[in-house]
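Researcher: First entry.
Model:
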Amino acid sequence: MTAPVSCIITSYNNGPTLRPAVESVLRQTMPVAEIVIADDGSSDGSRETIATLARTHRCITPILREKNLGIAANRDLAIRAASQPFVTHLDGDDLFASGKIAAEWAALEERTDAVAYSLIAR
């Protein structure tokens, strides 16, 4: 089953960490329907990485901003571009545990009054 979730990944000059971040979403035990990668005007090669990932994985939607808007505006605009009824977020220098989406989906299943969230582990 694919979860009806858009994962928003925000990035600004996250070149070395961006691919592992995206791969942590792609490796979920319950895949998300969409990954929106919103680049905030990076100049470190991140944009090329995003383009390559989008060509390889049809579930990835790239948003390449020409001008740096800041993390809050970049995230908010990316959420507005999401196509799924549920949204989760990941920074371009962080990772999801492999069962994150499945565990959160189980917490939400058949509930209309719930919010699922996860703790951060280092």
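Researcher: Second entry.
Model:
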Amino acid sequence: MAKAIGLSVALLALWLALSGFFKPFLLALGLLSCALTLYLAFRMKLLDDEAVPIQLRLTLLLYWGWLGGEIFKSAVAVSKVILARNMPLHQQLIAVPAPQKTDMGHVIFANSITLTPGTVTVETRPGIFLVHALTEEASGPEGFAEMGRRVARIEAR
């Protein structure tokens, strides 16, 4: 029931944010479309922890804010490398420990690495990711460890 309510609230909020219409007829159509989507998700048995991750809540929003800052800092660093006259590239493949316990945690961590400019998650195995880094600065283990700890905190709640 909590997942159905969570999905309903998310769908309604998304519909309102994207439509911007507040006339009664259009609000009724929005409610109807959200209700139909919820009904179909229920019939297809899609209301599980992976499809409706309500356990992530506020910690995920805080993580997205932190990740946005990291993406910006990495983008500036990669831009400096690209614009440098001699392009100081030190490409390497590194093994990054993945301390997350759930599939959702692994997905968030791997995608966060790939979203950060200068790094790409090439391969995932249980407990470890193979990551391509563009520079030595991008391959530092402390950055990956911090990101891994933050993702582990998200999935722990």
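Model: Note on the second entry: The chain is about 60% helix and 10% strand.
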